[in-house]
Design goal:
Blueprint lengths: L1 E9 L3 H19 L2 E6 L4 H7 L5 H9 L2 E6 L14 H12 L3 E7 L12 H4 L3 E7 L9 E3 L4 E3 L5 H17 L3 E6 L5 H17 L4 E6 H10 L6 E4 L1 H12 L11 E3 L5 E3 L18 H13 L4 H16 L20 H13 L2
Parallel strand pairs: 1-2, 1-3, 3-12, 5-10, 8-9, 8-10
Antiparallel strand pairs: 4-5, 4-11, 6-7, 11-12
Helix pairs in contact: 1-10, 1-12, 6-7, 8-9, 10-11, 11-12
This protein binds 3-isopropylmalic acid and magnesium ion (MG).
């Protein structure tokens, strides 16, 4: 199959993890005779340095004509002063909006080999397999902002149509999985949450009567997520709650470094990125965990290119590598390899070897 894939390494550890993701993508292409054209472009802080803007027009144009976009991470202390004129994060929000990728899938499955890497007791992690569907192009992230010397405000708004479309994505996922959807809001306080809950309730009844729906308030959901995580199947929630809860949920899987994401809209084009950030504190050291990016490559093949078998091959290679003791610094433990860890590129090597023997 032929595909154009935009590659946006970004800042900090972004280029380091994306390098490994690209190697995996190329290996899959070679193995299966696919013709992938990978085109790299500046995005985030590096783009601000080069052009003054986090999302240069040429990068946006490339993304808009691509079948899929693989992104590393953006941001860093250099561009985060309170009075900064251009911010990498602004570019990321604009890219998501321009691509209209309103549904952000963040799966969390606890691989048995990593149970001991989690800060949560292993017996709580038994059977955890959930997917967050985070609304990605609305809510408080995108509302009008005001600021004067003493006051600031951020507007949170949602329309029925915005809630419906992300709920449909989550509901279809639930149908293909264990048939359970949890919608998280703050409907005891926020008007947007009341609209959210009403809309989810009505839509699920009308279009997905076979899916079991449960509503939860965000504060208690944050608690239950680490108390009984195995009870969740698909979770749908608004943009900011989704941002916060998915960092929390990633710790179930052992590390922020192993969590992938797929951002999807109405078509098949998608944006794929690990959920971790640019990690300036470890950037340039070659110790970042590339698993979140490599699993994002699997999601790219599955959701944008329809290559399910290839996606499974990558996931299988990653899991076998972890079973065989692959540990980067973020998941190193004395029980495995005496606490020794491998570098980012060594981790890529191990996964590529597993892929070759699949
Ligand atoms: C994420 C990140 C971003 C977000 C930041 C970098 C704007 O935390 O993708 O989760 O909040 O969406
Ligand atoms: Mg986040």
């Amino acid at each position: 199959m032929k595909a154009l894939i935009a590659v946006l390494p970004g800042d900090g550890i972004g280029p380091e993890v994306v390098r490994e993701g690209v190697r995996v993508l190329q290996a899959v292409a070679q193995r299966h005779g696919h013709d992938f054209t990978l085109v790299e472009a500046d995005f985030g802080g590096v783009a601000i340095e080069a052009t003054g803007e986090p999302l240069p027009q040429a990068t946006l144009d490339l993304c808009l004509k691509s079948d899929a976009i693989l992104l590393g991470a953006i941001g860093g202390p250099k561009w985060s002063a309170p009075d900064a004129k251009a911010r990498p994060e602004t570019g990321l929000l604009r890219l998501r909006k321009e691509l209209a990728v309103y549904a952000n899938l963040r799966p969390v499955a606890v691989h048995p080999a990593l149970r001991s890497a989690s800060t949560i007791r292993p017996e709580i992690l038994e059977g955890v397999d959930l997917v967050f569907v985070r609304e990605l192009t609305g809510g408080i992230y995108f509302g009008a902002k005001t600021r004067d010397a003493t006051t600031a405000s951020d507007l949170c708004s949602y329309s029925v149509a915005e809630v419906e479309r992300v709920t449909r994505v989550a509901a279809r996922l639930a149908q293909a999985r264990r048939g359970k959807l949890t919608s998280i809001d703050t409907s005891n306080v926020l008007e947007t949450s009341r609209l959210w809950r009403e809309t989810v309730t009505r839509l699920m009844k009308a279009e997905f009567p076979d899916v079991t729906v449960e509503h939860a308030l965000v504060d208690s959901a944050a608690m239950h997520l680490i108390r009984r995580p195995a009870d969740y199947d698909v979770i749908v929630t608004e943009n900011m709650f989704g941002d916060i809860l998915t960092d929390e949920a990633s710790m179930l899987a052992g590390s922020l470094g192993v969590s992938p994401s797929a951002s999807l809209g109405d078509g098949t084009r998608g944006l794929y990125e690990p959920i971790h950030g640019s990690a300036p504190d470890i950037a340039g050291k070659g110790i970042a965990n590339p698993v979140g990016t490599i699993l994002s490559v699997a999601l790219l093949l599955r959701h944008s290119l329809g290559l399910e078998a290839e996606a499974k091959e990558i996931e299988g290679a990653v899991y076998r590598a972890l079973d065989a003791g692959l540990r980067t610094a973020d998941i190193a433990s004395v029980e495995v390899n005496g606490g020794k860890s491998v570098s980012t590129s060594e981790a890529g090597d191990v996964i590529l070897r597993q892929l070759a023997s699949a």
